[in-house]
C-alpha cells in the first residue's frame, strides 16, 4: 500500500463530515478496511445499523472525496453497519437465534431484507469450477420463461460473473438513494460487477463483503418478485453467513460435479445450510457427462452418478443432471444463456425440468405453511 497515497486519501476524507456527530469520518472512526492497490481504493464506512438506510449521501460523499485524490484510478466505498450485542428474541422455527451458533449482534443481523420477494433460493457449491454460475443463470432464465417475475443476485463479491454471463457491462442508474437494477433475458439482475471495472480486484475483509451484500439487497429497487435466485460464491464463508441471517431463504440448491473431490465439498455445503436452518432443496450434478460436438459420443469424464448417490446418502432430493456440452460454455461466455438462445435443445429442456421441480418444491413448502409465496399454475 502506498503510504503517501493513503495519507492523501485520509486527508480528503477529513473533509467529509458525519451530519449526526458533526465530526469528520476519520475523526469519528468510521473508516474501516482501507486498501490501496495500483490506484484502486476500497474502504467501508461504518455507521450505526439504525442509520444505514439514510447514510447513502454520506457514502457517496466519501466516494467522491476519494475519487478526487490525485493518483486514485477507481474508488469504491460501501456501508457496513454494526451494533452492540443485544439479547436476541426467540428463534423462528428452523432458524437459530441470532444467526449461526446463536451469536447476537454484529454484521448480518437485524430486520430481514427483501420482504417483497416471494421466495429466495441460493444456488451454491462447496468449491469453485463446478459450473454453479452457469447453472444459476440458466435456472433463473428458465423460471422467467415459465411466467415468473425473477430476480438474479450475484453474491460473489470477489469473482462476480453475471456481467459476462448476461452479456452486459451497463452500469445501474440511481434514483435518489435507490439503485435501479438491470433488466436482461427477462430477469431483474444485480452484481457488484456492474458497479466496478471488470479488472478491479476486490481486496475486502469480511465486514466489507457483508456490507456490500446488504447494500445490494437493501438499497436496490428490486420491486415485487415471485422468486430470487442468488448465485452464491463457492465455499462456506461470509456471504453464506450474511444471506442466511439477513434474508428468509426458502432453500438452497447445491451444484456439484460427479467426482469425489467435488462431492466432499458439496457435502460441506449441505451441512453448512443445515446448521443455519436453511433447507436444502436438492443436489444438481453438473458436467455429468461429455457429449462430443462432432459425433455425439458420450464420455463420463468425471464419473457419473456421484451426486445422485450423495443426495440419497444425505437424504436430500436429486434434482437432475446436466451435460458438459460445448454449446453451454460458448453461449455462457457470449452472454446468451442456452435456455434463452436455444430453448429447443435437450440441454435447455434439462434446465427447464429442474426449474419446474424447484417451483413444485417451493409450492409444497408454501402449502404446508412454512414456505414462500409462490404457486405452480
What is this structure, in a nutshell?
The protein is of the alpha/beta class and 377 residues long. The protein has helices spanning 3-13, 56-67, 132-145, 162-166, 206-218, 238-246, 260-275, 306-314, 326-333, 338-341, 346-367, and strands at residues 31-37, 40-48, 74-82, 117-124, 150-154, 173-175, 178-180, 182-184, 187-191, 225-231, 251-256, 280-285, 290-291, 298-299, 318-321.
Strand content: 15-25%
Distance linking N and C termini: 56 Å
Please name the CATH architecture of the largest domain: 3-Layer(aba) Sandwich
Average pLDDT reading: 82
**CATH homologous superfamily descriptor of the largest domain:** P-loop containing nucleotide triphosphate hydrolases
Indicate the percent of residues in helices.
25-40%
Structural class: alpha/beta
**In this structure, how is the largest beta sheet organized?**
8 strands, mixed
CATH third-tier fold name of the largest domain: Rossmann fold
Specify the overall morphology.
elongated
H/E order of the elements? Answer: HEEHEEHEHEEEEHEHEHEEEHEHHH
Q: How many strand segments?
A: 15
Q: Report the C-alpha radius of gyration, rounded.
A: 21 Å
Q: Which strand order spans the largest sheet, edge to edge or round the barrel?
A: 8-9-5-10-4-11-12-15
Spans of at least 5 consecutive residues whose pLDDT stays below 50 are: 83-110, 369-377
What's the CATH class label of the largest domain?
Alpha Beta
Oligomer: single chain
Number of helices: 11
Count structural domains: 2
Pfam family, one: FeS_assembly_P
Region (Disordered): 87-108
Biased composition (Gly residues): 96-108
GO molecular function: 4 iron, 4 sulfur cluster binding; ATP binding; ATP hydrolysis activity; ATP-dependent FeS chaperone activity; metal ion binding
Amino acid at each position: 500500500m502506498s503510504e503517501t497515497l493513503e495519507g492523501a486519501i485520509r486527508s480528503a476524507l477529513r473533509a467529509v463530515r458525519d451530519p449526526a456527530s458533526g465530526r469528520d469520518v476519520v475523526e469519528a472512526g468510521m473508516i474501516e478496511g482501507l486498501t490501496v492497490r495500483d490506484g484502486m481504493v476500497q474502504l467501508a464506512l461504518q455507521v450505526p445499523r439504525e442509520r444505514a438506510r439514510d447514510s447513502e449521501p454520506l457514502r457517496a460523499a466519501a466516494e467522491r472525496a476519494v475519487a478526487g485524490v490525485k493518483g486514485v484510478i477507481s474508488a469504491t466505498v460501501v456501508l457496513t453497519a454494526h451494533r452492540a450485542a443485544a439479547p436476541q428474541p426467540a428463534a423462528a422455527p428452523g432458524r437459530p437465534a441470532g444467526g449461526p451458533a446463536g451469536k447476537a449482534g454484529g454484521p448480518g443481523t437485524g430486520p430481514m431484507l427483501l420482504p417483497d420477494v416471494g421466495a429466495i433460493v441460493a444456488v451454491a457449491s462447496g468449491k469453485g469450477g463446478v459450473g454453479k454460475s452457469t447453472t444459476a443463470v440458466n435456472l433463473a432464465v428458465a423460471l422467467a420463461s415459465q411466467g415468473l417475475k425473477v430476480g438474479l443476485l450475484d453474491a460473489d463479491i470477489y469473482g462476480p460473473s453475471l456481467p459476462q454471463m448476461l452479456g452486459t457491462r451497463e452500469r445501474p442508474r440511481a434514483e435518489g438513494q435507490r439503485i435501479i437494477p438491470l433488466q436482461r433475458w427477462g430477469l431483474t439482475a444485480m452484481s457488484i460487477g456492474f458497479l466496478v471495472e471488470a479488472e478491479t480486484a476486490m481486496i475486502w475483509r469480511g465486514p466489507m463483503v457483508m456490507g456490500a451484500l446488504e447494500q445490494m439487497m437493501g438499497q436496490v429497487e428490486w420491486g415485487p418478485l415471485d422468486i430470487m435466485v442468488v448465485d452464491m460464491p463457492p465455499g462456506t464463508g461470509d456471504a453464506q453467513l450474511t444471506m442466511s441471517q439477513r434474508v428468509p431463504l426458502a432453500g438452497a440448491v447445491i451444484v456439484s460435479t460427479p467426482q469425489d473431490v467435488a462431492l466432499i465439498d458439496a457435502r460441506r455445503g449441505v451441512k453448512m445450510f443445515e446448521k443455519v436452518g436453511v433447507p436444502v432443496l436438492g443436489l444438481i450434478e453438473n458436467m455429468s457427462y461429455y457429449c462430443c460436438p462432432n459425433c455425439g459420443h458420450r464420455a463420463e469424464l468425471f464419473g457419473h452418478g456421484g451426486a445422485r448417490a450423495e443426495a440419497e446418502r444425505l437424504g436430500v432430493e436429486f434434482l437432475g443432471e446436466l451435460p458438459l456440452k460445448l454449446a453451454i460454455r460458448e453461449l455462457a461466455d457470449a452472454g446468451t444463456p442456452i435456455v434463452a438462445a436455444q430453448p429447443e435443445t435437450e440441454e435447455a429442456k434439462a434446465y427447464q425440468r429442474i426449474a419446474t421441480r424447484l417451483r413444485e418444491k417451493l409450492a409444497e413448502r408454501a402449502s404446508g405453511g412454512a414456505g414462500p409465496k409462490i404457486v405452480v399454475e
